[in-house]
Design a protein that fits this description.
This is EVI5 protein. GO terms for molecular function: GTPase activator activity; small GTPase binding. InterPro entries: Rab-GAP-TBC_dom, Rab-GAP_TBC_sf, Rab_GAP_TBC_domain. Keywords: Coiled coil, Phosphoprotein. This protein is mostly helical and about 350 residues long. The protein has four domains: about 1-70; about 90-185, Orthogonal Bundle (Helicase, Ruva Protein, domain 3); about 190-310, Ypt/Rab-GAP domain of gyp1p, domain 3 (Cyclin A, domain 1, Orthogonal Bundle); about 310-355. Helices cover about 75% and strands about 0% of the residues. It has helices spanning about 1-20, 25-50, 50-60, 60-70, 75-85, 95-100, 105-115, 130-145, 155-165, 165-180, 185, 190-210, 210-220, 225-235, 240-255, 255-275, 280-290, 295-305, 310-355. Helix 2 (about 25-50) runs parallel beside helix 5 (about 75-85) and helix 12 (about 190-210) packs across helix 13. The longest helix is centred in the C-terminal third of the chain and has 45 residues, at about 310-355.
């Protein structure tokens, strides 16, 4: 009853925004209504947080629907921690000790920090508090996961977390994201998971936007040229922060599915323009035009009109694994043949010397 009753008022927030009139009276009335609805939203999210264990078990679908509408800024830090189960991680107690240690990635992290949110007040000043806590979290993670260490792009995710919560909490959330949200596989040195995401996304384009797929192929415009940063930073380097944060809300609730959805929605809404452009023009369109086209509500609404089939994605994952296994086997065979050829050549040279 908690969500069923209160979410009715919350669902009308967007409707109130759309239906507000242009006159002074109607504008004032709409503003008053919106204020009440936002107050209702705060009350609702307060109840969700206080009754989280019960809500998570019994009202998972309703919580997802509410997250898609946006988590109020005041609740974002705690809700993100609850969504990924990071609020009581034992590793939090190790954080201060990790900061006393030395990481082999420190020089690389320092270099990249200046490039992370360079226009954001919290991070733009050299040696600022923002840059220092960002360095701390990235360094601590590089010490607990030496296989991944530090990967360029991950600092944007940590930076967003630090805009919402203290560094110890941001560290715990980042660890959970790496462990449970496919991010660790994306950031491994081999980046094999990124290759899988590119394959799955390209197959979605081929199925849902065949004309655009053919155009991309004709221009040798590979998926990784425009979409790899979408997956590695969850659109944080693509959109203005208000839109990217809304997408990240949903990512915390539903995982990488939202990246596929938003990505395909962007292509659908830009297909007509992209079909008229060559490779250079398309790159410019992705960098300069697309980031400023949409508001968050319109974009997320379009994303959930995209047909996403989880079973099909699993099938594509198996296909990709088979393809890569075959490629590896072929590489091993080529290496074996080259070795045999080299040894045979050495034997022939030896026999020629003897004779």
């Amino acid at each position: 009853r908690l969500l069923e009753t209160d979410s009715k008022s919350l669902r009308s927030v967007n409707g109130s925004r759309r239906n507000s009139g242009s006159s002074l009276v109607s504008s004032s009335s709409a503003s008053s209504n919106l204020s009440h609805l936002e107050e209702d939203s705060w009350i609702l999210w307060g109840r969700i947080v206080n009754e989280w264990e019960d809500v998570r078990k019994k009202k998972e679908k309703q919580v997802k629907e509410l997250v898609r509408k946006g988590i109020p800024h005041h609740f974002r830090a705690i809700v993100w921690q609850l969504l990924c189960s990071a609020q009581s991680m034992p590793i939090k107690d190790q954080y201060s000790e990790l900061l006393k240690m030395t990481s082999p990635c420190e020089k690389l992290i320092r270099r990249d920090i200046a490039r992370t949110y360079p226009e954001h007040d919290f991070f733009k000043e050299k040696d600022s508090l923002g840059q220092e806590v960002l360095f701390n979290v990235m360094k601590a993670y590089s010490l607990v996961d030496r296989e991944v260490g530090y990967c360029q792009g991950s600092a944007f995710i940590v930076g967003l977390l630090l805009m919402q919560m203290p560094e110890e909490e941001a560290f715990c959330v980042f660890v959970k994201l790496m462990q449970d949200y496919r991010l660790r596989e994306l950031f491994k040195p081999s980046m094999a998971e990124l290759g899988l995401c590119m394959y799955q996304f390209e197959c979605m384009i081929q199925e849902h936007l065949p004309e655009l797929y053919v155009h991309f192929q004709s221009q040798s415009f590979h998926t990784s040229m425009y979409a790899s940063s979408w997956f590695l930073t969850i659109f944080l380097t693509t959109f203005p922060l208000p839109i990217a944060t809304r997408i990240f809300d949903i990512f915390m609730s539903e995982g990488l599915e939202i990246v596929f959805r938003v990505g395909l929605a962007l292509l659908q809404m830009n297909q007509a323009e992209l079909l008229q452009l060559d490779m250079e023009g398309m790159l410019q369109h992705f960098q300069k035009v697309i980031p400023h086209q949409f508001d968050s509500d319109k974009l997320i609404q379009a994303a959930y009109q995209v047909k996403y089939n989880a079973k099909k994605m699993k099938k594509l994952e198996k296909e990709y694994t088979t393809i890569k296994t075959k490629e590896m086997e072929e590489q091993v065979e080529i290496k074996r043949l080259r070795t045999e050829n080299r040894l045979l050549k050495q034997r022939i040279e030896t026999l020629e010397k003897v004779s």
